[in-house]
Amino acid sequence: MSDATWDVQDGAIVERPRNVRKHPLLHRIYERHDELLAEQLPPGRTLELAFGQHMHPRADVGLEGWPSNVETVRKPALAGDARALPFADDSFDALIGRRFLHHVPPVDRPEIIREAARVLRPAGRIALLEGTPGLYRKLTKGAAFRLGLLEEDTDIYGHLSETAVTDLVSESFEVAEKRTLGSPLMLASISESDASARLLNLYERTQFVKWWTLVVGERPESGA
């Protein structure tokens, strides 16, 4: 796997993440996503699943499918499978997942949510940010792949819908927040020009395109 950029392990896709910093606007958008996620997290110990090359600032521990990523982060991290978390029950107060569920076979996604509920303490929160393409994203990304503007498409299982992500979370949690994110200016995020980052404020003011969904769930109190 050392020469590959992605692989399939037990059905789930694991990949060496691209260098998002090459795309200044996209990098700033991802930083904004991290801020939105942090706003939803309670105090306490936080686990992140599939953190890629950079763990969320609020994460205390990470679990990652691509082993070399574990070696590059400066926080405690393990290589492992989110479908069978190597942690005891009630170990964390919060859990973060950024843009990874679509790499897992649909039949296995509920198990990840159940495992998240198991390792979270009562009243703990899960915060998931997942790509949930509307028509605009499907059309623009499809064109970008055909024109060679984007790297190889590894989304072999397809993205989830906003409803699908919400339903997954609601099976084990009480949904506390749901927010659609995306702007027509996502087209500019392909650019490698530093000037593209100046569009962030306008991007923030034009959030009417379905590109991602942020879903936050809270584990019910024991006996609730």
From TrEMBL:
> Locate the Methyltransferase type domain: which residues?
66-127
Tell me the domain of life. Answer: Archaea
Keyword match Mitochondrion: no
- Annotated Gene3D superfamilies: Vaccinia Virus protein VP39 (3.40.50.150)
Family matches, as InterPro entries: Methyltransf_11 (IPR013216), SAM-dependent_MTases_sf (IPR029063)
GO BP, one example? Answer: methylation
Molecular function via GO: S-adenosylmethionine-dependent methyltransferase activity
Record has Aminoacyl-tRNA synthetase as a keyword:
no
Which keywords annotate this record? Answer: Methyltransferase, Transferase
Pfam families tied to this protein: Methyltransf_11
Provide the protein name.
SAM-dependent methyltransferase
User: What species does this protein belong to?
Assistant: Haloarcula hispanica
